[in-house]
Known about the structure:
One of its GO terms (cellular component) is cytoplasm. Belongs to the IAA-amido conjugating enzyme family. Residues 346-441 form the GH3 middle domain. InterPro entries: GH3 (IPR004993), GH3_C (IPR055378), GH3_M (IPR055377). Residues 457-578 form the GH3 C-terminal domain. The protein is an alpha+beta fold. It has three domains: 1-82 and 116-130 and 328-363 and 393-442, no CATH class; 133-321, no CATH class; 444-592. Helix content is 38%, strand content 22%. The chain has an eight-stranded antiparallel β-sheet with strand order 9-10-11-16-15-14-12-13. Helix 16 packs antiparallel against helix 17 (511-524). It is globular and about 70 Å long. The model is unreliable at 1-5 and 364-377 (pLDDT under 50). The structure holds adenosine monophosphate. Adenosine monophosphate binds next to strand 1, strand 9, strand 15 and strand 16.
Amino acid sequence: xxxxxxxxxxxxxxxxxxxxxxxxxxxxxxxxxxxxxxxxxxxxxxxxxxxxxxxxxxxxxxxxxxxxxxxxxxxxxxxxxxxxxxxxxxxxxxxxxxxxxxxxxxxxxxxxxxxxxxxxxxxxxxxxxxxxxxxxxxxxxxxxxxxxxxxxxxxxxxxxxxxxxxxxxxxxxxxxxxxxxxxxxxxxxxxxxxxxxxxxxxxxxxxxxxxxxxxxxxxxxxxxxxxxxxxxxxxxxxxxxxxxxxxxxxxxxxxxxxxxxxxxxxxxxxxxxxxxxxxxxxxxxxxxxxxxxxxxxxxxxxxxxxxxxxxxxxxxxxxxxxxxxxxxxxxxxxxxxxxxxxxxxxxxxxxxxxxxxxxxxxxxxxxxxxxxxxxxxxxxxxxxxxxxxxxxxxxxxxxxxxxxxxxxxxxxxxxxxxxxxxxxxxxxxxxxxxxxxxxxxxxxxxxxxxxxxxxxxxxxxxxxxxxxxxxxxxxxxxxxxxxxxxxxxxxxxxxxxxxxxxxxxxxxxxxxxxxxxxxxxxxxxxxxxxxxxxxxxxxxxxxxxxxxxxxxxxxxxxxxxxxxxxxxxxxxxxxxxxxxxxxxxxxxxxxxxxxxxxxx
Length: 600
Ligand code: AMP
C-alpha cells in the first residue's frame, strides 16, 4: 500500500508538472488576471491603474521597479500601516532576503496563502529525482539545514528568512522525521555550531540509511565537510562511548540525540575513524554514506565555485541543483537532475508568479554606464520602455533562445514588475515553459577606472587559473575578491583558500606557478581590463592565499551581521572593509601577476 501511494504521488507529480508546463502561456495570463483582480484596488496599483484590471494597461502604466522604489511602501507597512498599500491580502510576515538595501536587509512581504504555494515547489522536485534515482523511499536525507533567529518590525510583524520560515512550519516539522536523519530539534537549534555537530553526528549514526545529502546551497555543504574535518575525532569518540560531548548544551539537541545515540558503538566508531583518518579526503561522502545516491544543493551561479570541491568529496555521487528561487518568488526547477552541474537550466513554473523578461546585452568594449540599484554600475545594458515601445520586457510566450534577460516578477505578495537583479540565459523550453541558465547577479562587479568585471567573468577567469593548479594536487576551496583602491593605480585582489588533495597538510606553494595563476586570471578578463592594465591604469593583480578556516570566519562574520547560514552566498566581490579585514587576518602568502603585455 505504501509503495502504491508513492507510485501514485510520483505519477501525480509528473502529471502536475506536464500540465503546468504545457499550459505555461495560458497559466501566466490567468496569474496576471487574478493578481490584478485581487490587487488593482491597492494604494500602489491604483496610482497607475485607477482601479482598472486591464492587463495591457498594467503593462503600459505600471513601472518596472527595484527594491529601492518600493521600500517606502514596505517601510510604511513595517511601521504599522495597512498591508493594503501593496496587496489586498493581509501580510502574515516579512521575509528577510540575503540582499541588503543601504546596509539594511530587504524585507519581502509574505502571506499565509503564498507560503503554501512556495512549499509546492518542493513537492514538485521529488518526483523528478525519483525518476532518476531508485530506492529513495527506502532511506532518508542527511540534511544540513539551519534556522536563524527572527526579529520583529515596529508594528510587530515577524521577520524571518524563507528557509527558517519553512523549517519552522508545521508541515516541515511533521514530515522531517520521515525524510531527514537530523531530528527536528537539531535543525531548529539556533546555535549553528551545535546544530551542525548534531546533524553530522546523527547522519553518521544512521549512515546506512542515508540515501541523499542535502543543504540549500553548496557553500553550506562545503562548510559542513570542513567542520567534519575538524571534529571527526570528537564525533567518533561520542559514538564509541555513547556519550554526547558536554559542550552541546542545547536541551532540544541533547534530548533528541540521546534517542539515537543510545549505546556505545565501538565498531561504528572504528569504521568512521578508519575512513576519516585517511590522509586524502577524496570521495569521503561516498565512503561515509555508501548508500547516498545524490547530493542535493544549489551549485549554480556563485555556488559553481564549489563544484570541483564537492565532486572531490563526493567520489562520484552526482551533484543535483534542484531549483532556482528567491525570497521574492520561486522561479523554476531542474527537470534533468543528472545534467552537468555547469550546464543546469531551470524550467520556470508558470503558476508561481507573473514573469517578464527584460532583454539585456552584455556590452563589448564600450560598457554601459547605467547605474545599478545597489550603487554599482552594471555591465549589462538594457533599455526599459513601455509595452507600446520597441524595447521592453517580454513575457513567457516571447522569449528568444540564446538571449540574456533580467527577470522581472509580479507576485501574489505585493511586488509589481520588480527587478530581481538576476541575469539569465534562455537555453530551451519544456513544453511551453522556458528554461533558463542562471548567469549572474547583475550588481556584483569589481570596478576600477572604466573596468567593470562581472561575477560570471571573474568565475570564468578563476576557473581557468584553477585548472593550472589542479594537476599539482591543489584545489581551490573558495575565493573572494575586492578592488584595492587605496593606492594609485588600484588593483584587484583575490583571496584563495586552497586544499592539498592528498593530505590535510598543505605543502609549500610554488611562487612561479602562483604568479602564473595571477597572469591567467588577468589574461582571461576582458579587453577593457587588459587595455587599462597595459596603460598602467590598473596595477598587477594580487593573489592572497589564506589559511584553512579563513572563509569560515568570513561566513561567521556575515552571520553575526544578520545573514542566514542557509542562504549564505560567499560574496565573489567584497565591498565591506570589515569583511576584507577578516580575510586579511588569515593571509599566509601573497603573489602578483608578472604579466605586463596583454594586447600585443
Ligand atoms: P535569497 O532571497 O536570499 O534567498 O537569495 C536569492 C538569490 O539567490 C537569487 O536572486 C539568486 O541570485 C540566488 N540563487 C537562488 N537560487 C539560485 C540558483 N539555483 N542558482 C544560482 N543562484 C541562485
